[in-house]
Amino acid sequence: MEVEQRDNECIWYDPALVEGDPRQYFDIHFWHQQAAVTGSAKGRGTTFFIRGPKMEMALRHYYRGGLFGKFVKDQYWFQGWEATRCGAEINLLAYLREKKMPVPRPVAARAVKNGRTYRADILVEKIPGARDLVAILSENSLLAHDYRAIGRLVRRLHDAGVCHTDLNIHNILRDRKGKLWLIDFDKCQQRDGEQWKEDNLARLHRSFKKEKEKRQIRWQPEDWAAVLKGYNHIRK
């Protein structure tokens, strides 16, 4: 990952994926002019899907959530470039890719400083043909071996020492070939110790139960046992 740093701006980018000036990669008007915007998704903000020169990508601006976010939409306190939300996320994705984890390939990230605060954007690979588990379970049930695969995926993440602080079934995808992926590593970090791993699993469990109540997904409480079997490397 290359880094370009100026007084008020820092850009991280993969030179194998970025052609020309990396700054234009964060300009949605530039992509519209290229007729390269293929879609968008609404969340805390809008994520734009872009057909890039090397792959399809997702461009996301960082927005605050919660009550504070109603007053300060997208500004964060500056504590150094590597501590920015985008810098931390793109470096964590690069680390996980080195560990052969199925996470989106990081393309580029940018933080722009204004006084004591900054705004940020990140550009990552869009996994082709992938859908999150909520969408999948809204239509079909999963088999026990699917849930064991989910458990194994989380175990690999934990073995790499990474806590996904928003581990839920919106952030676990499955592509057309059945491969599972993890996305959205904003505010995630490497951790020592063991207790956080149990807490992280419990968070995922709550996500299944929440979506069952909210959307009536095709998940049953007994399916969780298969997730734990996969996590603990129990084959049957």
Task: Describe, in short, the structure shown.
With 236 residues, the protein is of the alpha+beta class. It has helices spanning 28-33, 85-98, 133-139, 144-159, 195-215, 224-231, and strands at residues 2-5, 9-13, 37-42, 46-51, 56-61, 76-77, 106-114, 117-125, 131-132, 162-163, 172-174, 180-182, 189-190.
What is the topological layout?
Elements: E1 2-5, E2 9-13, H1 28-33, E3 37-42, E4 46-51, E5 56-61, E6 76-77, H2 85-98, E7 106-114, E8 117-125, E9 131-132, H3 133-139, H4 144-159, E10 162-163, E11 172-174, E12 180-182, E13 189-190, H5 195-215, H6 224-231
Antiparallel strand pairs: 1-2, 2-7, 3-4, 4-5, 5-8, 6-8, 7-8, 9-11, 10-13, 11-12
Describe what you observe in this structure.
This protein is an alpha+beta fold. The protein folds into 2 domains: 2-125, Phosphorylase Kinase, domain 1, CATH 3.30.200; 131-231, Transferase(Phosphotransferase) domain 1 (Transferase(Phosphotransferase), domain 1, Orthogonal Bundle). The chain has 6 helices and 13 strands. The chain has helices at 28-33, 85-98, 133-139, 144-159, 195-215, 224-231, and strands at residues 2-5, 9-13, 37-42, 46-51, 56-61, 76-77, 106-114, 117-125, 131-132, 162-163, 172-174, 180-182, 189-190. The strands form 3 sheets. Strands 1, 2, 3, 4, 5, 6, 7 and 8 form an 8-stranded antiparallel beta sheet that branches. The chain has a 3-stranded antiparallel beta sheet with strand order 9-11-12. Helix 4 (144-159) crosses helix 6 (224-231). The longest helix is centred in the last third of the chain and has 21 residues, at 195-215. It is globular and about 55 Å long. The mean pLDDT is 95.
